[in-house]
C-alpha cells in the first residue's frame, strides 16, 4: 500500500496566488429556462468539495479564480474547478432549475435563493482537511441557520433535493499526515461521518438526499502522471472500492430505517467515470487520461503564473479532453458523465 505519495489529491491545487483586479461574477450557471409548472423538486442544495463548488472560495486563494479556469463557461474564471460547468450544473439542468448560487452570493443575488443554494467548498471533506474552509458539518450548519432565519420554509425543503459530493479530500489529507497506516479504519470513519451528515440533511427537511460514490481516483492525472497518463492505477482504486462498498451498505441501511424507501440515493460516479474512460470516442473524447491544462514543469500546475509569466499550457480543444487539470474533469468530461448517468437511469432515481 505505497500510494500515500501518489494519492495527493484535490488539495495541492490550492497554491495560494493573489489575483490582481476584481472580477465580478457574471456566471449564470443555469442554462435552461425555469419551467414553472414542472413537477418534482424545485430546489437544489449542494454540499461538498471542488466537484460541486461553483464559486464559494474567495478569489484570492483559489486556482478556480485564475485563468484559464472558466474559459469554456462562462468565458473567464468564475470559481469552478474546470474549464466550464461542473457536476452541480448538470444535476441542476436535469432538475430544470438554475444552478444554485454559491452560499457566499446569497445576499448579493437574493432573487436566486429560490433555486436552492450551493454550500460546497473546494478542498474540503467531511472532516477537516489542510484547507481552512468549512467542512461538511459547517456547510450543513449554514443551511440550518438559513432555515432558522426563515430564508427557506418547510415546504421549500419538501420540494428539494440535496447533492452531496465526497470526492476524496479526507483521504488525501489523511495520507499526507498519517501515511497509509490505519487507512481502512479511516475509510469507515469517513463513511460514518458521511452517514451522520446525510441523516442531518434529511432531518432538516430535504426530501431526497443524493450522495456521489467515489470516482476512480486511480485514473486521475495526479496519479497517472508518473506513467505518462498511459493507464489507471489499480492500487488507489482498491481504496475507492472499499469506500463505495461501505457507502452502499450505509445507504441501504438508512433507507431500510426510513419510511420512504428511496430517500437516500447514491450517484454512481465510479461506473459512469469508468464507462466514459473506457469508451471515450463514444463521447467524442480523444484524450482520456491526459489533462488539458498542465504546468510547464512539475513545479507548476494549471493556472500557475510566475513573475507575470504563464507557467501552464492549455490543449487546443478542451472539448476533446476528459480531464481539465490533475484532478478535475473538463466540462466535456462532466457532460459525458452526465449523459452516462442518464442512460444508466441514475438520474431518474433522484426524482422517484
Ligand atoms: C468541522 O469543523 C468544526 C469547526 O468549525 C469542528 O468543530 C468540527 O469538529 C469539524 N467536524 C468534523 C466532523 O470534523
Ligand atoms: C477544524 O478546523 C477548525 C478551524 O477551521 C478548528 O476550529 C477545529 O478545531 C478543527 N476541528 C477538528 C476536529 O480538527
Ligand atoms: C492520524 O492518526 C492519529 C493517531 O491515530 C489520529 O488521532 C488522527 O486523527 C489521524 N489523522 C487524521 C487526519 O485522521
Ligand atoms: C458512527 O460511529 C459511532 C461510534 O462507533 C456510532 O455510535 C454511530 O452510531 C455511528 N454513526 C453512524 C451514523 O453510523
Ligand atoms: C523546481 O523548484 C525547485 C526549488 O524550488 C528548483 O530547485 C528546481 O530547479 C525546479 N525545477 C524545475 C524543473 O523548474
From TrEMBL:
Gene Ontology biological-process annotations: lipid catabolic process
InterPro entries: GDSL, SGNH_hydro_sf, SGNH_plant_lipase-like
SUPFAM superfamilies: SGNH hydrolase
GO MF term set: hydrolase activity, acting on ester bonds
Keywords in alphabetical order: Hydrolase, Lipid degradation, Lipid metabolism, Signal
Segment forming the signal sequence: 1-21
Family according to the record: Belongs to the 'GDSL' lipolytic enzyme family.
Protein name: SGNH hydrolase-type esterase domain-containing protein
